[in-house]
Design goal:
The chain is about 30% helix and about 30% strand. The chain contains five helices and nine strands; from the N terminus they run E-E-H-H-E-E-H-E-E-H-E-H-E-E. The relative contact order is 0.15.
Length: about 190
């Protein structure tokens, strides 16, 4: 079985399973596997929780290929990072009508990563550590040949995260609503 928790030097990336998502949605200040800062989830956080709850309906609620809480050494939620779903063929991963770019073959499946660190916790290297942890974990599963990241070209901080993790190269562009995003690929 794949790990429910990815451990890095300073973080634990804890799977946001259905039970934990339900608890966060109904009682964010309640007892969880970590403490949640006052004011979270805000409106954006609730949108994420509701989206993840919908995905949990589809996959049974306990897939390790989902969003994870990023928890620091003090047991405090500092953000979230994870996968947009389980490994799929590269053509399926890039099957977006707005995508323009290369679709090169790979050995193994493709996964997309994402990460968000709370504003009050930014500037400490958590996003880089979380993203690197996700890439390393995905590589260790033997199921993944490519990691994808989609980043708005004006999101300099996120582009620097991808640069620090290393090994990513731009392969195209797509639209996420009104936002154009760079599509970056790292072969494992």
């Amino acid at each position: 079985m794949l790990d429910d928790v990815i451990v890095t030097d300073r973080l634990r990336l804890v799977v946001l399973d259905r039970a934990l998502l339900d608890s966060l949605a109904t009682d964010p200040s309640g007892v969880h596997a970590f403490s949640v800062p006052a004011g979270w989830p805000d409106e954006d956080g609730m949108e994420h929780i509701e989206r993840w709850r919908g995905l949990a309906e589809v996959d049974g609620g306990s897939s390790p290929w989902r969003a994870r809480a990023a928890v620091d050494a003090d047991g405090v939620f500092v953000g979230h990072a994870g996968f947009h779903g389980p490994p799929v063929p590269i053509g399926d991963a890039l099957d977006d009508p707005t995508y323009e770019g290369l679709v090169e073959p790979c050995d193994g499946g493709a996964v997309e990563i994402g990460y968000t660190i709370l504003a009050v916790k930014r500037g400490r290297g958590y996003a880089t550590e979380a993203a690197a942890g996700l890439v390393e974990w995905a590589s260790g599963t033997g199921e993944v040949g490519v990691v994808i990241a989609c980043v708005r070209p004006d999101n300099i901080a996120s582009l620097k995260v991808i640069e620090r993790v290393g090994g990513f190269r731009e392969i195209g562009r797509c639209q996420d609503g009104d936002d154009e995003e760079l599509v970056l690929r790292r072969d494992l």
